[in-house]
């Protein structure tokens, strides 16, 4: 069986040396290069075509999330394992959405990293337990309430007529005379129109009517 070709990406030399020292002793894993930022990682992936990239997140020039996104777009067969200190949703979710095949924290045991590299290479998602908890919490959180768009169909025939007259610039008194109703009733209709359409004033109602082609 051929070795798994691994590219290391981290802007800290000490981290790179430590990873090189340990992974270099593992059977079936071949370290083929390293990079210190996302832009350099893209170039190395193009040149070396690794099987797995071990990717830090916070780096100069280009961060690991953007690098992961571009690598997965250009080289979808290359597996990317994020290895970072950040376990919050602001980092986890964007990395997963960018296409990362795994997300590990730098407190993992070296043996766990080796297992993750082998697992990712064989197509299995690799997540640190804390990351799994974050994703579960995100999925379990209630979805935001849907925003209901204003709908002209929610208006009664009289309310629609009042809306058209509003758009024509008529006052409540003029609308009352035109519709043969009291000004108080006009005010009630205007209030209902604004409420149903989610508008705050008569000006917005007039603009809405014009946009909908109800008035010239």
TrEMBL record:
Keywords: DNA-binding, Phosphoprotein, Transcription, Transcription regulation. It comes from the Bacteria. SUPFAM superfamilies: C-terminal effector domain of the bipartite response regulators (SSF46894), CheY-like (SSF52172). The modification 4-aspartylphosphate is found at residue 56. GO terms for biological process: phosphorelay signal transduction system; regulation of DNA-templated transcription. Residues 148-213 form the HTH luxR-type domain. Signal peptide: none annotated. Pfam families: GerE, Response_reg. GO terms for molecular function: DNA binding. This is Response regulator transcription factor. Residues 5-121 form the Response regulatory domain.
């Amino acid at each position: 069986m051929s070795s798994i070709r691994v590219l290391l990406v981290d802007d800290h030399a000490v981290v790179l040396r430590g990873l090189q020292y340990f992974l270099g002793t593992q059977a079936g894993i071949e370290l083929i290069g390293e990079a210190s930022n996302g832009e350099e990682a893209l170039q190395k992936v193009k040149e070396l075509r690794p099987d797995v990239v071990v990717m830090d997140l916070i780096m100069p020039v280009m961060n690991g999330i953007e690098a992961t996104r571009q690598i997965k777009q250009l080289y979808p067969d290359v597996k990317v394992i994020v290895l970072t200190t950040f376990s919050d949703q602001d980092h986890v979710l964007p990395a997963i959405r960018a296409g990362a095949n795994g997300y590990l924290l730098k407190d993992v045991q070296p043996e766990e990293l080796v297992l993750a590299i082998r697992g990712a290479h064989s197509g299995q998602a690799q997540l640190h337990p804390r990351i799994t908890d974050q994703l579960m919490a995100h999925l379990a959180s209630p979805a935001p309430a849907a925003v209901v768009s204003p709908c002209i169909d929610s208006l009664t025939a009289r309310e629609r007529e009042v809306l058209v007259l509003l758009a024509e610039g008529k006052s409540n008194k003029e609308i009352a005379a035109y519709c043969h109703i009291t000004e108080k009733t006009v005010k009630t209709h205007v209030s209902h129109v604004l409420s149903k359409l989610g508008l705050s004033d008569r000006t917005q109602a007039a603009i809405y009517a014009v946009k909908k082609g109800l008035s010239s």
